[in-house]
Amino acid sequence: LPLHIHTSLPVRVKPGNENIKLSHGNYYQSSLTDTGLRSVYCRSRAVVVPLQNVLQPSGYSVTMQAMACGKPVVLTRNRGLWAPEYLVDGENCILVSPGNSAALATALRRLEGDAGLRTRMGEAARETVLKHFPHKKNLESLRAAIADL
User: Fold this and answer.
1) What pTM did the predictor assign?
2) How far apart are CA 79 and CA 110, in angstroms?
């Protein structure tokens, strides 16, 4: 499968894997602009968000951006999963266990082989973002936090 990896971690691609593209960056500093990153999401068939099994919520920004672009997301179901009530496995995302590369491969093959599933899951993902995570709601939460200070 064609694969674009965007990470600040050291990744080595074996010679002959022309299907793999690397770009460097993280939430704070990136070789991609916001517009460039959105373009990557929009051109993707699916977005994978592999996370460590930690209690701290992580992967929120990437997941929400990809879902807002109408893309199915394969996300690690870690201990710090930040919105388990809205991230529904098989409906608006696919959740895999931490470190389970076989489950990740199965999820990617399933999405690659079923365009209808990708479309349905992507539409459900976008609807989840619009319904439960709109900018207005985030702005209200920010204002309330500032007022509390």
Assistant:
1) 0.87
2) 25
Spatial contact of 72 and 93, defined as CB atoms under 8 Å apart: yes
Across residues 12-20, what is the average pLDDT?
A: 93
> What's the CA gap between 93 and 71, in Å, rounded?
9
Question: Could you give the CA distance from residue 50 to residue 107 in angstroms, rounded to a whole number?
Answer: 13
pLDDT, tens only, 84-99: 999 999 999 999 999 9
Q: How many CA atoms lie within 13 A of 81 on its CB side?
A: 20
CA torsion through residues 23, 26, 29, 33, sign: positive
**Which of 28, 30, 69 has its CA nearest to residue 47?**
69
Q: Is the dihedral of CA 108, 114, 119, 125 positive or negative?
A: negative
Task: Spell out the residues 6+ positions from residue 22 whose beta carbon is closer than 8 angstroms to its own.
Answer: 4, 5, 6, 7, 11, 13
